[in-house]
Amino acid sequence: MDEQSELNKLRQQIDSIDSQIHELLNKRASCAQEVARVKTQAFEQAQQFESDADKSSTQQLLFYRPEREAQVLARIREANQGPLADDAVAYIFREIMSACLALEKPMEVAYLGPEGTFTQAAALKHFGHAVIGVTQPTIEAVFSAVESEQCNYGVVPVENSTEGMVAHTLDNFINSPLKICGEVELRIRLHLLVGEGTSSDNIKSICAHQQALAQSRNWLDQNFPKVERIAVSSNAEAARMAAAEPGIVAVAGDMAAQQYSLSKLASNIEDRADNTTRFLIIGRESVPPSGNDKTSIVVSTRNKPGALFGLLEPFHRNGVMLTRIDTRPSRTETWAYVFFIEFEGHAEDAVVSTILKEIEEHSILLKVLGSYPRAAL
Ligand SMILES: O=C(O)C(=O)C[C@]1(C(=O)O)C=C[C@@H](O)C=C1
């Protein structure tokens, strides 16, 4: 068989497989619509039998189910026989579920704007591209947009592998009624971006979010030690400035480069090759166990010897793995602190609930910020 007829035959096979995939995708979408109908019916029935006082607090019509999505993605990865990579199939199913959820109810997700930020990339990675993104000017505004029900969920950065915690986000959690309902990690690649009219000879200033400046500090010190660095509200804002004014250079990622049609003067200038940021998904509801969860709490103890040991010892005694611990000033007393602790397991697990009771007895404040599925992508 010559090359052309061999190709034609294979393409016919691909066309036929595509038709089957297409039919199955729409069958799946119809199933999701049925799921929405069942959820709505159950919700309306429960509303009829509940007193007005209970209605707002106990009954919520939840189309987005993070625990179920995490289970679907875990099952797909586990069953994958190749040749497609586990990540590739997981990403495809991420988008399929995103489209199915949009048929049930389009989700509005708040994130730090403008368009082109890493937080937007994290939101799309977590929810898929069928989500409706709503940009916000600050991290506080992301919290407010979800608290005021203007948006269904929000995405906020919480820690970076080079620079550590995002203190601003942690501080917002202390007084917020919102729950953490998911996490997503994003590999951060930073580039030196310029608009038309800027070259290495006429650079006046380098703009970026302070985190991006910190993550590429060594590279900038070596290559542009004398150029002024300006911290701005986001990397995307820096990209917008670089596009608007010759002489301004932005440190930002690929999405910002595309958004503002900038070219790269240098690529991958982050100081650490594994530079990764972790983001949290915030919402108004608690998430049931998925079978592979994490829990985040904030605790404040009396300022006495052994206080931190007393807080951590129950985790050790019960064999529960801590994944993170951060300290922040309490803001109510001088030299008093609150601890942000993250660990494996769900607040509804027997062992976790025993630990939480014990901690509550020995602390001034214990707030469970949420139990949520571990990042699936
Ligand atoms: O299982 C559900 O509850 C669904 O709504 C279906 C589905 C899916 O497409 O698989 C869609 C949205 C949810 O977030 C979880 C899963």
Automatic annotation (TrEMBL):
Pfam families: ACT, CM_2, PDT. The record marks 277 as: Essential for prephenate dehydratase activity. Residues 296-373 form the ACT domain. Its EC number is 4.2.1.51, 5.4.99.5. One of its GO terms (cellular component) is cytoplasm. Its main location: cytoplasm. It catalyses: prephenate + H(+) = 3-phenylpyruvate + CO2 + H2O; chorismate = prephenate. Transmembrane segments: none annotated. This is Bifunctional chorismate mutase/prephenate dehydratase.
